[in-house]
Amino acid sequence: MASLYFTYSAMNAGKSTSLLQVAYNYEERDQQVVLLTPALDTRAGEGKIHSRLGLARSAETFTPKTDLFRRVQELLSQQVIDCILLDEAQFLSPEQVWQLARVVDELNVPVMCYGIRTDAFGNAFPGSAGLLAIADKLTELKTICFCGRKATMVYRCDEQGNALNSGEQVAIGGNDRYVSCCRKHWVEAVGFTNRQLLE
Q1: Taking Cα atoms as reference points, which of 141, 77, 62 lies closest to residue 109?
Q2: Residue 42 domain flag
Q3: Residue numbers annotated as active site
Q4: Is the distance from CB of 37 to CB of 48 less than 8 angstroms?
């Protein structure tokens, strides 16, 4: 039986590398994969999944308006699909998470999603929240804070390297804009007090 998987972490834990390795493993066994990535993430070029190790693959893009269930149905009418691999899953809408669940349950195609759990301000991304709620299997990839503890958070920096404590939830960037860290150092960097976090 197919399953819906969600692999999550802070930034720089190797999610894209892991996704590309899984794609390679399937293809090495002559199985067919479909790679998906959000259209808004163009850091490596449109329709590209790129890892910090330098690995890259072309992928089909989706927008918040894409009906992923219908798109997979269309693709299945043209080819065999043994697995769907989706990068930057935090950018899924809640509806798209359920569309992927239908791909698993009704079309019997495994779906493996990779993404970050929370934004730079400690809030869950809608796509990640949906996957954490309904995925069949959850896996956390670990990376470390500069202090050596597990990094579970990420903060966004301005051009001078100062941590920001407000802004839009989505701001595409990499190591130039984001720092992965433990919760303690995230609170210190962002400057939130316990009272502010509870409000």
Answers
A1: 77
A2: yes
A3: 88
A4: yes
pLDDT tens sequence across 91-107: 999 999 999 999 999 99
Residue 75 lies in a domain: yes
Determine the Cα–Cα distance for residues 90 and 130; give it in Å rounded to an integer. 9
In a domain, 94, yes or no: yes
Residue 196 reports pLDDT greater than 70:
no
153 touches 9 (CB < 8 A): no
CATH number at residue 78: 3.40.50.300
Task: Using the structure block, give the residue that is written with the tokens 């990535």.
Answer: 37
Which range, of 12-16, 117-121, 125-129, 190-194, averages the lowest pLDDT? 190-194
Q: How far apart are CA 142 and CA 12, in angstroms?
A: 9
Question: Is residue 100 assigned to a domain?
Answer: yes
- Domain holding 43, by residue range, is 4-143
Contact (Cβ atoms closer than 8 angstroms) between residue 26 and residue 82: yes
Q: Identify the pLDDT of residue 194.
A: 47
Residue type, 65: K
For residue 102, how many other CB atoms are within 10 A of its CB? Answer: 16
The count of structural domains within the chain is 1
Is the model's pTM score more than 0.90? no
